[in-house]
Design goal:
Helix content is 45%, strand content 15%. By secondary structure, it is an alpha/beta fold. It has a 6-stranded mixed beta sheet, with helices on both faces. Helix 1 (12-25) runs parallel beside helix 5 and helix 3 (76-84) packs antiparallel against helix 4 (102-117). The protein starts with a strand and ends with a helix.
C-alpha cells in the first residue's frame, strides 16, 4: 500500500500530518504536483513534479495507483477514478470517498460547476479549520490502522 497526494491544492498543514503518518507507519508516500513540493528528509516520502497542464498530476496518480493504495485529494473526479481502480480516496477535510457516495458528490460538483458557468456566485468552500485538520488526521490514522491489520 502506498499513499499518493494530489499536492498542488493540498493545504500545508495536511501535508505535515501526512509526513508524520508516513514516517510513523513506514508507508511510501509520494506528492505529485505541477509545482516543486517540499518534502522532509525521510526514506518514505518523496515528491514528483509533472508538467503543467489540465489534469496532468491527476492522470499521473491514476497511472501509478495500485488497488489498495490511498489517494489524498479534494478533486472529486480524481477520487472517482481512484475508486474505480480499486484504490481508496480521502479528502483533506477528512471525508472518505466511497463507492456509495461518489456519484452524488460528482452530481453535486457538476451542478455547482454549471451554476458557476452561468454566472452564479456559489461562494466556494468554507475556510480550512482546526476541526478539518483533526478530522483528516483521525481518518488517516483509522485507515492506516485498518491497513496494518489486513
Amino acid at each position: 500500500m502506498k499513499i499518493w497526494v494530489d499536492a498542488d491544492a493540498c493545504p500545508g498543514v495536511i501535508k505535515e500530518i501526512i509526513f508524520r503518518a508516513a514516517d510513523r507507519a513506514a508507508v511510501t508516500t509520494t506528492l505529485i504536483a505541477n509545482t516543486l513540493q517540499y518534502t522532509p528528509a525521510s526514506p518514505y516520502i518523496r515528491a514528483l513534479q509533472v508538467q503543467s497542464g489540465f489534469d496532468v498530476a491527476d492522470n499521473e496518480i491514476v497511472q501509478r495507483l495500485q488497488p489498495g493504495d490511498l489517494v489524498i485529494t479534494a478533486d472529486i473526479p480524481l477520487a472517482s477514478e481512484v475508486l474505480a481502480k480499486g484504490g481508496h480516496a480521502l479528502n483533506p477535510r477528512g471525508q472518505s470517498y466511497t463507492k456509495d457516495t461518489i456519484e452524488a458528490l460528482l452530481t453535486m460538483r457538476n451542478f455547482m460547476d454549471q451554476m458557476r458557468s452561468s454566472g452564479v456566485n456559489t461562494g466556494g468552500p468554507a475556510p480550512f479549520s482546526h476541526s478539518d485538520r483533526k478530522a483528516f488526521a483521525n481518518q488517516l490514522d483509522k485507515f492506516l490502522a485498518r491497513h496494518r491489520q489486513s
